[in-house]
Amino acid sequence: VIRSGIPNFCAVALALSDLGYKATGIRLDSGDLAYLSCEARKFFVAIENDFGVPGFGKTSITASNDLNEETLDALNKQGHEVDAFGIGTHLVTCFAQPALGCVFKLVEINDQPRIKLSEDVSKVSIPCKKRCFRLYGKEGYPLVDIMTGENEPSPKVGERILCRHPFNESKRAYVVPQRVEELLKCYWPGTSDKAKEDLLPLKDIRKRCMEQLEQMRPDHMRRLNPTPYKVSVSAKLYDFIHFLWLNEAPVGELQ
Description:
This protein is an alpha/beta fold. It contains seven helices and eleven strands. β4 and β5 form a beta hairpin.
């Protein structure tokens, strides 16, 4: 946010100002919202003074990221420069039946991989076109899902496969699957020549979802302290993620 997001926004906003347009504001969606909003405000005020853009210091700052009453109270006590709060999940869903947080992220454009960087590691996206497979064990239960690059060979039954956590280098395991199921299918090919499958009726999708849940190990499905189901990446995809991450992430400077 501080090293690239805010400076890039200000550069674009100044260019728009020269063309007669006014940038509306920014949205903070992760990290320390109180601290980041205060730092952003200081940046905006400095831009107004240094470049002579009237009113730039009052550029709107909106904050989001699963906000609720406790978060708002904590922000008010800390002090912040947020002008508006985006409250969605906790406003429209029952906390006892929480929403599934899913967001589409761009992973490739014009055959060039793209990665989203964030101070929150859970929000860093996994770049490039991928395939996804479910690996089953001897007892018939799913063991792990693994993502591979689009051109990597498919996992094979009886063949030992190294499964890696996308971001934690110490979390890894070899898996010898007794059954392999490809999960990712193409229902909207866009402009590619990839074969398209017909989307099933909603009742069939629901039926398949229930069947998949019944295949899970009991400890994954228990209500109290369920075992997290593992989603991994191949060794080749792991190396590529971290290569791109290190090359694209801005380097901080301490003074």
